[in-house]
Design goal:
A five-stranded mixed β-barrel has the order 9-10-11-12-13. The radius of gyration is 22 Å and the shape is elongated. The protein is built from five helices and 13 strands. A hairpin with a 3-residue loop joins strand 10 (about 225-235) and strand 11. With about 300 residues, it is an alpha+beta fold. The longest helix has 21 residues, at about 175-195.
Length: about 300
Amino acid sequence: MAVSILLFLGAGCVALPFGKQAVEYEAEALDLPLGSSFDLSQGISAWGIGGAPLVKHVTVEEHQAGKYAVLSWAMDVKRETEASKSAREYAMTHAPVGEDVKIPEPVLEGVSEKGVVSSHSLDNAERILLPTYWPEGEIDVSESSNSLLWLSKAQYDELATTRASHIQLGLFDSTLKGVIDFSDSAKSALDRLQGKIAEQPTSNKDFTKLTASGNFGSAVIQLNGTDVKVKTLEASNAFAHYSILANPDNPIILKVTMLPWALGPQMFFSLTELKEVLGYSITSVYQPSENPLEHPVPDNASGQ
């Protein structure tokens, strides 16, 4: 199962239907003014795995490029009812030894999760907060140097000019650090058994370093219902691959693909755990009164 998922994730951007082509669109024209909205698929469903897509519908309530952003979001999900939880727990805890246990199937109900996330740290933030971890209710993540879904201006400028920067994943950092420590400890023990010289301790490793590809990439999204292809910066570290809109005023991260195979086989204990770390993909954007055909990429400026 793990191997098939890895092969699928390595396939890159989702292909358009046969014979359909996206309009090349200037990345610098793709901004997110007040009233814009976008849809993002998160977890396994972002790549069409595991049933119906899990989609967050996000509305831009406030946004000043490189300064601040306020996003409201809503997502329809299925949750187990409290009565179902109680019945299943009772069945599991009231079964004497030697008797067959019949656990009821979970009963699910549709609910809508909602929230508002904001940050005033888009100029110098150091981390993003994966949509999986957006809590319901209102939260301002500025104090934790969090830029939500954007690279900060400092990160983008550094990545675009030097091909290197640093990024963290907020609440997920401690998990990642623990996994790489475990993997390195196991490798070090194996090296010693084989008479090899162990590598430098993990504490000296910079697991936040982000390295950009030497060439621009591209991503296909729907813009006001039209499939468009925009130029991107493609960058990776040990934990994830990032597709970043090549727009210094709106360096939104269009896609984050977590790389669980880089973290070791312990990340494949269950599809539920895998789903929580596979990132997200922005699939469509709506800009009020914007016509995608007004900003085609000139033939000599595609950057490809």
